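4.2 Preliminary Data

To establish feasibility before requesting continued support, the project team ran the inverse folding procedure on a target of 249 residues. The structure was first converted into the token representation described in Section 3, and no sequence information of any kind was made available to the design step. The complete token record follows.
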């Protein structure tokens, strides 16, 4: 297995993307620590991982609480002997719509929350990975300087800022043996509400690709597991494109 004897911490594991990442890591042998603010969704993800033969435990905490995140990372590293993979897929209070129509305070609060959460969780992981001389920190969403979509509100802005954070972490942690990457997505239709009015948006994602289909949650988990493994040990400081060709150079 690609991730045997590795410990993966997934912040936002109760959501669709976080759950997919956890299942992907666990399928390759990782011990998964599922973190979020609400017990129910975390328990659901943990049950799915265990039902497939994987290992999972849960922790309820707020990724904006720096002391709690640090204490938890310390406890994970102490209990397992290492903290090998960290990924935070939490988007704080996302607001959508044309920027001209959105209250400045709402957009600023959303972006600030996302950035703060990412800094806290990445810093907590980096402290342990730097000492180990190994580890992988993943971000999700990504940024495309060519393709833009109106109405994304705070979400794409937050992703663009997080990409700047990813670049800085990569150059600072690389000499310590820690890899830092982003999974660049063109959208995952399975994460959309199952409602007739959402079908055009789902179809638009598929239509924008070169393959005529969008990435699935299973794709997300499988690619993440590969990227986090030693088979991708030469990869860092970049985005891994899982957009099925919706984004390209």
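Position-by-position output of the design step:
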């Amino acid at each position: 297995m690609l991730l045997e004897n590795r410990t993966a911490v997934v912040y936002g594991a109760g959501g669709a993307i976080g759950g997919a990442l956890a299942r992907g890591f666990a399928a390759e042998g990782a011990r998964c620590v599922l973190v979020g603010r609400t017990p129910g969704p975390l328990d659901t993800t943990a049950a799915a991982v265990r039902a497939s033969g994987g290992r999972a435990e849960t922790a309820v905490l707020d990724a904006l609480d720096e002391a709690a995140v640090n204490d938890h990372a310390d406890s994970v590293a102490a209990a397992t002997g290492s903290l090998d993979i960290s990924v935070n897929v939490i988007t704080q209070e996302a607001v959508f719509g044309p920027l001209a129509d959105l209250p400045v305070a709402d957009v600023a609060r959303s972006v600030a929350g996302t950035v703060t959460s990412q800094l806290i969780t990445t810093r907590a992981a980096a402290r342990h990975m730097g000492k180990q001389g190994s580890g992988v920190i993943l971000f999700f969403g990504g940024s495309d300087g060519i393709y833009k979509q109106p109405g994304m509100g705070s979400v794409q802005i937050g992703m663009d800022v997080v990409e700047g954070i990813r670049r800085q972490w990569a150059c600072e942690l690389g000499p310590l043996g820690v890899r830092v990457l982003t999974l660049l997505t063109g959208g995952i239709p399975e994460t959309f509400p199952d409602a007739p009015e959402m079908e055009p948006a789902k179809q638009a994602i598929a239509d924008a690709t070169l393959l005529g289909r969008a990435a699935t949650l299973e794709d997300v988990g499988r690619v993440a597991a590969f990227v986090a493994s030693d088979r991708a040990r030469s990869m860092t400081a970049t985005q891994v494109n899982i957009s099925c060709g919706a984004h390209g150079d």
